[in-house]
Design brief:
The chain has 290 residues and is an alpha/beta fold. It has 2 domains: 221 residues, 3-Layer(aba) Sandwich (Rossmann fold), CATH 3.40.50.1820; 43 residues, no CATH class.
């Protein structure tokens, strides 16, 4: 990483009774770009994308990468609380209040993209531009699915569960690459270094293991369409050409975005910011400054 990227600052703020962590680059007086990671990921996974973006533009930016609750260096909610879409949206709203920003650009990957989309729909005047990476909103739930979904969440929410442990950074990185083989080794190692903690059993993931259970938050497809149609800002939708996004029912929502543009990154799977950060930056940069 070059000197410009390593000039990041660790920051914390209080929200909903939790201490949440984020990192930032640049001058807070400039326009803010807020990055939101995916499920079981963390803020520092954006480092390579930020490095590429800063190297490609001299347009002044204030970049913020949030650790959602239960991820990275943010606190976990107590056992009686879960990880609903509403909870993550509280995190985003809390961050906006903390930064004292009337408007900003949101960039989200996967789960983070879904939350960014919902936030932009709830507060269309607050989001200037929106970048959704492998995301067009959460999975829709049929009404008949909701009782079983809630039952599964209730069974899992109180279960005693632990994250996997690894003896070394290299072994943990191999585990990431085994599940997501298109993530380069350097990116996998970086994810481990900032996404794990030392325990007496070895390196354990920082994320709350309850994140492996499906949220009981549920929206129907028509409700998600209503959210999308409330979004007024220019929206850039990015997907990996080697992933399964276009096979997902969520891909059909692309046409609902009033000011949407759609870009494929060939050779990338689901984890575009990790796999192709330079290409992603080349696509996002002109969108930000146009």
């Amino acid at each position: 990483m070059n000197d410009r990227t390593t000039q990041l600052r660790d920051r914390y703020f209080s929200c909903d009774g939790l201490k949440l962590h984020y990192v930032e680059w640049g001058n807070p007086d400039h326009d803010s770009l807020i990055l939101v990671h995916g499920n079981r990921d963390h803020s520092r996974s954006w480092d390579f994308f930020v490095e590429a973006l800063l190297a490609q533009t001299y347009h002044p930016l204030h970049i913020v990468a949030l650790d959602l609750r239960g991820h990275g260096d943010s606190e976990w909610p107590p056992p009686e609380r879960g990880y609903r879409h509403e909870d993550f949206l509280i995190d985003l709203k809390g961050l906006a209040r903390h930064l004292e920003k009337d408007s900003f650009t949101l960039v989200g990957h996967s789960l983070g993209g879904s939350m960014a989309m919902l936030f932009a729909a709830c507060f269309p005047a607050q989001v200037k531009k929106l970048v959704l990476i492998e995301a067009t909103g959460p999975y829709a739930r049929a009404e008949t699915d909701v009782p079983e979904l809630l039952a599964r969440w209730l069974e899992g929410s109180g279960a005693e569960t632990e994250n996997s442990c690894y003896p070394t950074v290299a072994e943990a990185a191999k585990a990431i690459q085994k599940r997501f083989p298109q993530i380069p080794e350097a990116a996998a190692v970086h994810m481990v270094r900032f996404g794990s903690r030392n325990t007496d059993k070895g390196l354990a993931w920082k994320y709350d293991p309850r994140m492996r259970f499906h949220s009981f938050s549920s929206f129907s497809e028509s409700q998600i369409k209503a959210f999308i149609q409330r979004i007024d800002c220019p929206t850039l939708l990015v997907y990996g050409g080697d992933g399964d996004f276009m096979k997902s029912p969520r891909a059909s929502r692309i046409g609902f975005f009033k000011k949407g543009s759609f870009v494929e990154i060939p050779g990338s799977g689901h984890h575009v910011p990790h796999e192709r950060p330079d290409e992603l930056a080349r696509i996002v940069r002109p969108f930000l400054i146009e």
